[in-house]
Amino acid sequence: MTTYQEMRQAGDRSIAEYKASKEGQSYVWSYYDSGWEMARRCVMRVHPGFDWDPMEGVYSEEERKNHGDDSCNNHPREEAC
Known about the structure:
The protein has helices at 4-20, 22-46, 53-67. The chain is an all-alpha fold.
């Protein structure tokens, strides 16, 4: 018979394995991209003529400064980087 602590450890291992998997990673990126897209839509609704491209460029440049040139290689939206 397993104890509560053993079950808890097994659950923690399962969660850690899922987070490290490609499926888990894509879920995180999808969640992030959804928020970014919603922010973009809100801005575009209020300011229809707003050019969003410079925002993407600044974000990409900051990513490169903070995480190196290959920081976007694992991101599904790597064309924006």
